[in-house]
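Bumping with the actual sequence this time:
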Amino acid sequence: MNTKGLIVAISFVLGVFSALGQKTTYEGDPDISFSVARSMAFAGDYHGARDTLNRMLSRYPEYSEARGFLARTYSWDGMYAEARKQFNRITSREKRNKEVWVAAIKNEIYAENEGIALGLANKALIYIPEDSEILSLREDILYRIAQNQAKSNSETTENKEKEQRKSKNRLSIGNAVDVFDVGYDPMIYATVEYTRETSLGKIIPRLNYSNRFNQNGWQYEVDLYPKISKKLYAYLNYGYSQDAIYPRHRGGAELYWNLPNAMEVSAGMRYLAFASSETTILTGSVGWYKGNYYLALRPYITPTGESTGFSGNILGRRYFKHKEHFLGINMGMGYAPELRQLSANNALLAETLFFVESQQIRLEYQFTNRDQDNLYRTHLGITRQEFVTAPNSFFWALTAGMQYQIRF
């Protein structure tokens, strides 16, 4: 019988004894078992070798050479954590066993655990000072750590540069529709905007389109977000339209402060000028982040000659993987600048909206593709609003829309 056949036969016999060993104590010769296990491992039978070694070690747990070889079979099989347990068991009692220290260090190098490997090398040098082999391994580990750090820094820099390049330009296309329960035909909205990030802040020119009351209308807008300091920035807006379904002029200005504890406050105003009237709206906001959540409160105050109108809304968001991925809810009562304009007797009554009662709630969900180059946002909302010509009578409107944005 050749050597390979003999190893197979011995493996079979030992396997039978291993099965019986659950009920019997190991009674063999540990040196012979160790020799057989080595032959099995070198023939590629790591599992059989470990069975043999574990049975023998159950009777002779201090057989360090056998336990060290058991650890190596785990390491050769990629079972680095199991190998670590066996190596640690030996080095905890045999602190000057160089062979085991070297094998344990190499096990962590194979596992790409350079931090653990460095710790083992430093510990080994305490008990075996100035050993050339361990010092050489330590230098190799330090080199690997330096290379990994340089690679990580390079990848981080590249990712930041890529993100910065992608963030400088954005093109968005959006549309929405309002459907009413009584009295009005559906209203259609569309918008196209371009966002440019500069060292001074964002510039956002925008083109709005609406079809309301069987009339088409266009509005031209631009938003500016100038940076004043690290904790202070502003919002400026101007819009113009010659069509009756939009205000002739609209403007806005607001100042934002970033405060400690992830809070932000702002104060500002909005201005709307229609063909025969104009109004100024005072506003501000208080917002704060808590973990993956964001909450903001915004009031609106509309002073008039006879009375002052009050309204406001609450915005809440739950962020997921990153800042562009969130689920939000927006609830409002009273007047908000984005509310639809209505008419009576074929005359537009946009300026009277500041005095009608309304409640609204809107859900929105935003997500991106894997590379965050493309952004998608959808929203669905419902509004209950008072008729201008019939106080204390209300209609319902369902709003739905989506927006697509690409970064380049």
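The tokens above came from a reply further down the thread. Helices lie at 3-20, 30-42, 46-59, 64-76, 80-91, 98-110, 114-127, 132-167.
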